[in-house]
Amino acid sequence: MECHSKYNLMPWVDVYPTESIVADYKDGRALVVDIGGGKGHDLEKFRAKHPNIPARSLVLHDLPATLVDVELTGPAYVVQPNDFFEPEPVKGAKVYFMHNVLHDWPDDAATVILQNIAEAMEKGYSKLLIHESLVTAEKPLARVTTSDIVMMALLAAKERTDTEWMDLINGAGSKVVRIWRPVEAVESVIEAELA
Questions:
Q1: Is 103 in the active site?
Q2: Exactly one of 41, 61, 99, 103 is catalytic; which is it?
Q3: What is the pLDDT of residues 115-132, one digit of tens each?
Q4: Could you tell me which of 88, 138, 98, 160 has the C-alpha nearest to residue 118?
């Protein structure tokens, strides 16, 4: 996952218009909380695109063992152990972000994760961004369908279709606003907010 996050084909900041995150940011709050974020590569990509963000505005969450030897430097970062099956401790962040987290989990477990995030979100302000592969209805990419088989065999999980994502997100208290899908890209960014 570390290699995938660090070297994935298209960074999330090139898929989603991150200027909108910074534009109406409420001072003193977390800007982006990366849930299950590994070593913080996705936060580094955001910081590189937006170098003048406030101190302590980028929060990295993962299990304590994963956060050992994290090398995020600079005042923008906060490294905070957290289990996403427990309540989300950072309330009212602008964005809660996950990259290839939910495809590891069957729907019941993914629903718990999404509900924990929804309980921390502020209606009308917070966004949930999910950077994942989507199985398209027509001509799905071989890389995505192969990953779907692997996820099913190893974890009883799956890559999801647009409809499956909408059903999952809607069932956890949020709603899909838009799917940001680059042409021929493996991964898309699903933008959601509280219902």
A1: yes
A2: 103
A3: 999 999 999 999 999 998
A4: 88
